[in-house]
Amino acid sequence: MAGANVNPVKDIYYSTVAIGNGDDVAGYETTLLSIAQLCPLSDGPAVYHARALYSLIDPDQDYDDDITCVQNGYYFRMQQGINRKSSVFPNPTSGEVTIVCLAPENTLLEILDICGKVCFQSKLNSNSDSHVINLSRLENGMYTYRLMSQDVLFDMGKIIINK
What we know:
This protein has helices at 6-15, 29-36, 40-43, 45-54, 65-71; strands at 87-89, 96-100, 107-112, 118-124, 130-134, 141-149, 152-161. It is an alpha+beta fold. The radius of gyration is 15 Å and the shape is globular. The protein has two domains: 6-71, no CATH class; 87-161, Immunoglobulin-like (Sandwich), CATH 2.60.40.10. Helices cover 24% and strands 28% of the residues.
């Protein structure tokens, strides 16, 4: 059921990171990991939020959405010539992040707040695989980033800003 985990993840965020107690996230390790390991196609944005929070506990945790989602009957549509993988560091950040990806021509980066409102947009240079983005004007919080090319989403993830 998509959305069933939204409130528990928001509650964890608001009782820890949002009030400057990021270290307290460790007390929710089991809950966050169980949500983070779900398929984001079936369980929605809470999966990405849980992954972002869990990265404060274990930044090296890896998730295989291809396998997890296939086990639940969801399949990613692969597009020839588009690499849907990216990485963002440092994450959490105090303002400036580097996004590493092979950006197709006309790639748009969008940063959305926890309510889904677009807070930042930038076109990425397709001639580079490393893109430094200044997000220092954004408030502390958890954000979703989306990478789109020709109106097709080819990657997304979470960024935590903690100044």
